[in-house]
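User: I've been trying to design a sequence by hand for this structure and keep getting stuck. Would you show me what you'd pick, starting by listing the structure so we're on the same page?

Assistant: Good idea, let's start from the same input. This is the structure you sent:
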């Protein structure tokens, strides 16, 4: 590339740029068009390949080692998903292709919606939301539209104090007020408390299920009965659906709207904020409000349907994160319903295995029940010896592991939230547990040693607060 669009400072505060072989005289007065050769470094292909391979090696991914990041469901992502998503008919499809030329993609989305309907037991699905959080936002907009159509004014959403931070954030974005509900010492919601809190102005309870401590909300059906009796709805944050996909339908718990995190439960590489896909499934009373377009089927042909007078409107350009939809579809088809059940069983078994292997070495803040997909420890036994969850998380990096989610949920002081997922072998789980125990012993002998970890990474321990408060943003090193 000899010449290209380039920004150049022509005088203080002024930016000029040049266009390759293009004459745009009408722009010249204000933009100072110039012709200039770009000073890009000339590199050979092997140099470029080595550069990016090195960067990839410095990164950490599930393809390298165990990644027990609680709540995030970092399971192995089968390569067949990527193969399917990169098929030229999918990857090369222009989003504005007429429906008649994109029947395959529309059929895939229609069938994926049907599978999500079957798994949830609910009546209608939108695949549009681009993340779990956007699914929450969509669900809450639907709830808001529902009450508006009924002429009811309900302003509050109840949220347990263990919830993921996106829950209250989505409420605020939608204009609802958040009422925080404390969980009991058993780690679940209390019926009495819900009974007391559901007043006439409550629109819904937003409940993560299984909850963020990894527990089944045992009274969820009774809770939904209370809500429905008082005219309120039950929103389910389904990001932890890995624990019961194929085992139970949320419809049976009385859920009115649920979002799924396809990038977690149905395996797409994710992390660092994306990419994601957070479809919502709803009861028929919320269906008229779903965002446009929805995919409709007429005999054997499929179409995007924009003609929905009560819809909350568009959420994003086109039809969601299509590549993730293809991956989720491929994953579901590969596993089938039986495979999905086995996935959920294994995820639960693996989390409980870690729980029982580590429970004599780390304190369990909510010890009374079995967990589902994840287990939470705290650092109270280690604090006595002068080291913390953060020190142990940093030391795990030296042993080649991604640390678990730490200091979340906020109700657990010094929390370590471990989610192994179903895709790990017993050997991997044992090796990880051995290292966790070893690190705890290292700290008891010499807490200062742990305080300086990690020792083997490219970047040693950073002052994260300082880095966030005083970011150094450079264009060229
Ligand atoms: C991951 C997660 C979310 C948010 O999903 P994103 O795709 O990251 O926006 C919400 N709730 C729970 C319980 C989660 O684990």
């Amino acid at each position: 590339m000899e010449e290209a669009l380039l920004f150049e400072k022509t005088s203080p505060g002024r930016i000029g740029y040049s266009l390759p072989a293009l004459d745009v005289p009408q722009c010249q007065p204000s933009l100072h068009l110039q012709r200039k050769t770009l000073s890009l470094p000339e590199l050979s292909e092997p140099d470029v390949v080595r550069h990016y391979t090195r960067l990839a090696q410095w990164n950490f991914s599930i393809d390298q080692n165990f990644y027990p990041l609680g709540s995030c469901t970092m399971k192995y992502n089968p390569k067949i998903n990527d193969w399917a998503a990169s098929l030229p008919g999918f990857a090369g499809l222009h989003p504005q292709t007429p429906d008649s030329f994109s029947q395959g993609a529309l059929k895939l989305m229609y069938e994926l919606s049907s599978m999500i309907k079957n798994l949830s037991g609910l009546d209608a699905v939108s695949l549009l939301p681009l993340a779990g959080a956007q699914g929450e936002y969509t669900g809450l907009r639907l709830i808001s539209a529902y009450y508006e159509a009924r002429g009811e004014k309900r302003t509050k959403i109840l949220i347990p104090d263990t919830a993921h931070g996106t829950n209250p954030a989505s409420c605020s974005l939608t204009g609802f007020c958040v009422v925080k509900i404390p969980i009991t010492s058993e780690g679940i919601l209390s019926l009495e408390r819900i009974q007391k809190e559901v007043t006439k102005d409550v629109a819904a309870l937003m409940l993560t299920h299984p909850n963020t401590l990894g527990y089944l909300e045992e009274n969820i059906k009774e809770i939904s009965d209370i809500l429905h009796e008082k005219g309120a709805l039950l929103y389910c944050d389904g990001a932890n659906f890995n624990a019961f996909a194929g085992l139970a339908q949320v419809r049976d718990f009385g859920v009115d709207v649920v979002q799924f995190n396809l990038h977690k439960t149905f395996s797409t590489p994710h992390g660092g904020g994306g990419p994601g896909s957070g479809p919502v499934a709803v009861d028929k009373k919320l269906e008229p409000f779903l965002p446009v377009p929805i995919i409709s089927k007429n005999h054997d042909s499929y179409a995007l349907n924009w003609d929905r007078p009560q819809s909350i409107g568009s959420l994003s350009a086109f039809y969601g994160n299509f590549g993730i939809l293809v991956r989720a579809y491929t994953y579901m088809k590969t596993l089938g319903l039986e495979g999905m059940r086995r996935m959920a069983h294994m995820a639960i078994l693996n989390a409980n295995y870690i729980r029982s292997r580590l429970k004599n070495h780390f304190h369990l803040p909510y010890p009374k029940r079995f967990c589902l997909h994840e287990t939470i420890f705290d650092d109270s036994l280690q604090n006595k010896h002068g080291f913390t969850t953060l020190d142990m998380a940093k030391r795990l990096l030296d042993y080649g592991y991604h640390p678990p989610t730490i200091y979340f949920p906020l109700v657990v002081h010094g929390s370590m939230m471990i989610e192994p997922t179903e895709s790990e072998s017993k050997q991997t789980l044992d090796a990880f547990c051995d290292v966790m125990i070893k690190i705890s012993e290292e700290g008891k002998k010499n807490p200062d040693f742990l305080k300086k970890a990690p020792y083997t990474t490219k970047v040693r321990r950073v002052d994260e607060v300082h880095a966030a408060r005083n970011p150094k943003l450079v264009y060229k090193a």
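That's my pick for every position. To get oriented when you compare it with your attempt: The chain has 16 helices and 14 strands. Residues 345-468 form a domain with the Aspartate Aminotransferase, domain 1 fold (CATH 3.90.1150.10).
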